[in-house]
Specification:
- By secondary structure, the protein is of the alpha+beta class.
- The chain is globular and about 60 Å long.
- The relative contact order is 0.19.
- Strands 1, 2, 3, 7, 8, 9, 10, 11 and 12 form a nine-stranded antiparallel sheet that branches. It has a three-stranded antiparallel sheet with strand order 4-6-5.
- The chain has a single domain, classed as Beta-lactamase (3-Layer(aba) Sandwich), CATH 3.40.710.
- It contains twelve helices and twelve strands.
Length: about 325
């Protein structure tokens, strides 16, 4: 079924609308009740990196942190889409060393650190990057740690039939109140799942509200180390800093954003259909404001994402990013 997305964000040039970014928003409580939405909250969307807290949960449930002597820093990296900064790389190296492995065991692939795109800087010429710099290297180190702890093969740890990936699927079904609708392969080669947008929102409401020691270990690490979960000038860092410990935030590739709000028992899932990054950031700030979770972005780290200007390569302001979404209460 074709999603019934609606305009969420427009970009302007000289006061005229130039681009329109369609998408949907779902706001759900832990019981699954749809609190507010716009567009198509039933639309099927891949969770992408928003799945990471649940991909890390089996390792925590089985005592993996104590087994390896990992703390909240390593825990945060397992849930991270990090920027490949020195602080991120060194923690992943430490994780691999504790389990007697090195970066050659990581099967996430390699890309230039996200730090450069986030900070609008240029990577040094001739620099060689490794799998350690991949934004998902912490998650993969956690996968390998789980396998070594349980004497499972590591050469095929990403196969959908591997015991680890089967355990993750069961964990997702438990939190999402039902099996995922579809399965695919994520950018880091790990299995990933698609579900209705409102189910992803419910999943984050449950993550935020969950009182089990295992899930609280994960949310504590994410909330106390948002710089490790994301990185310098990244949206998840700004969201969790602005939430002052109340919000758990996780971006996903191709226009996905999920947030859990502890104090309200709410989960928020936002999808920009064309995957535009600046559009999902602007939509996120607008949703938080319309839900009265954010009174005014000014003075918070989210100010940079609230209707930001668009500038050309000479620094001249040519237009802006303007949210046009209107949440409908249910």
């Amino acid at each position: 079924m074709i999603p019934r997305h609606v305009p969420l964000v427009e970009t302007t040039r000289g006061g005229t609308t130039e681009c329109v970014h369609y998408g949907s928003v779902a706001v759900v409580d832990a019981s699954g009740r749809l609190v507010a939405s716009t567009g198509d909250p039933d639309s099927l969307n891949f969770t992408r990196s928003a799945l990471k807290p649940l991909q890390a949960l089996p390792f925590v449930e089985d005592g993996g942190l104590a087994h390896y002597g990992f703390g909240s820093h390593e825990m945060a990296l397992m849930c991270a889409s990090h920027s490949g900064e020195g602080m991120h790389v060194s923690i992943v190296q430490r994780m691999l060393s504790r389990m007697g492995m090195d970066e050659s065991a990581l099967q996430c692939g390699c890309h230039a650190p996200s730090f450069y795109a986030a900070t609008e800087t240029t990577a040094p010429l001739g620099t060689a990057w490794s799998a350690l710099h991949h934004n998902c290297s912490g998650k993969h180190a956690g996968f390998l740690a789980y396998c070594r702890m349980h004497d499972l093969p590591t050469r095929n740890y990403l196969d959908s039939g591997h015991p680890l990936q089967q355990r993750i699927r069961t964990t997702v079904a438990r939190f999402a109140h039902g099996d995922p609708i579809a399965q695919g392969i994520d950018g880091c080669s790990a299995p990933n799942f698609a579900m209705p947008l409102k189910r992803l929102a419910q999943l984050y409401a449950r993550i935020a509200a969950e009182d089990s020691p295992e899930m609280q270990t994960i949310t504590y690490a994410m909330g106390h180390h948002p710089d490790l979960v994301s990185g310098t000038r990244r949206a998840d860092l700004a969201i969790m800093q602005s939430g002052r410990g109340d919000w758990i935030s996780k971006v996903g590739a191709d226009g996905m954003q999920a947030i859990g709000v502890r104090s309200q028992g709410l989960g928020i899932a936002i999808r920009i259909a064309d995957g535009n990054t600046r559009a999902v950031h602007a939509a996120t700030v607008e949703v938080l404001e319309q839900l009265d979770l954010l009174d005014d972005s000014s003075g918070t780290p989210l100010a940079a994402y609230d209707c930001p200007p668009i500038r050309n390569y000479r620094g001249i302001e040519t237009g802006g990013v303007v949210p046009v979404l209107k949440l409908i209460g249910h």
